[in-house]
Amino acid sequence: MSEIADPVPLTGDRVALEPLSAAHAHGLRAVVAEDDLHRTWYTRIPAPEQVDAEIERRVRLQREGTMAPWAVRRLDTGAVCGTTTFMNVQADVPRVEIGSTFYAPSAQRTGINAETKLLLLTRAFEDLRCIAVEFRTHWHNHASRAAIARLGAHQDGVLRSHQVLPDGSLRDTVVFSIVAAEWPAVRAGLRHRLARGGAR
């Protein structure tokens, strides 16, 4: 298995990223049920009854070397508040995409996303020596697009009619990236945001 696909534990001041396992199913069922998060039409979030299968899928992809999945745990309450991954692992480059991420609505605008991204990007650029990290999101997911742009990522383009979603609608996928040369400035920006409270 590629080192990139190894979801090593990562800990900050607000969150702990734990290798995803079946033990996180109960917490993640509560996350996707909060404010009917799983009904968000422009992103793929499992319904509560689908959480176990989604965990199994991600762990299987980890074993195959194409994904490193984590559960995100808040340190202030101890509760699981979301999940995230390294996906589309290209170990020979090396390059990864950070994606398949969702958080409980109560965890949003708390600095949890900013610190999670700081931990993941530090892992990618400093431990794994990735040359680039990619982010993808639905054209209509304006909150996600704004959050990615606030990281300092550059929009590379839009893949039009890129995917067919379960409801039959077509997804236009917006692609962003951060390259290794940009990482010091991105890191400084994230640290500054977190020092000021870290909204998003």
Write a short abstract of this structure.
The chain is of the alpha+beta class and 200 residues long. It contains five helices and eight strands.
Folded structure, characterized:
It is a single chain. With 200 residues, the chain is α+β, with helices and mostly antiparallel strands. The protein has one domain (3-195): Aminopeptidase, CATH 3.40.630.30. It is built from five helices and eight strands, in the order E-E-H-H-E-E-E-H-E-H-E-E-H. Strand 7 (154-164) and strand 8 form a beta hairpin. Helix 3 runs antiparallel to helix 5 (183-195). InterPro entries: Acyl_CoA_acyltransferase (IPR016181), GNAT_dom (IPR000182). Keywords: Acyltransferase, Transferase. This is GNAT family N-acetyltransferase.
How would you spell out the order of helices and strands? EEHHEEEHEHEEH
- The low-confidence runs, each spanning 5 or more residues with pLDDT under 50, are none
Class by SSE composition: alpha+beta
* Shape, per Cα inertia axes: globular
CATH class: Alpha Beta
Helix count equals 5
Strand content: 25-35%
How many β-strands, per DSSP?
8
| Count of discrete structural domains | 1
Distance between the termini: 33 Å
CATH architecture designation: 3-Layer(aba) Sandwich
Q: Strand count, sense and closure of the main sheet?
A: 8 strands, mixed
Task: Enter the CATH topology name.
Answer: Aminopeptidase
Major sheet: arrangement of strands: 1-2-3-4-5-6-8-7
Q: Write down the overall mean pLDDT.
A: 93
Within CATH, the superfamily carries the name Gcn5-related N-acetyltransferase (GNAT)
Helix amount, in percent?
25-40%
Radius of gyration: 16 Å
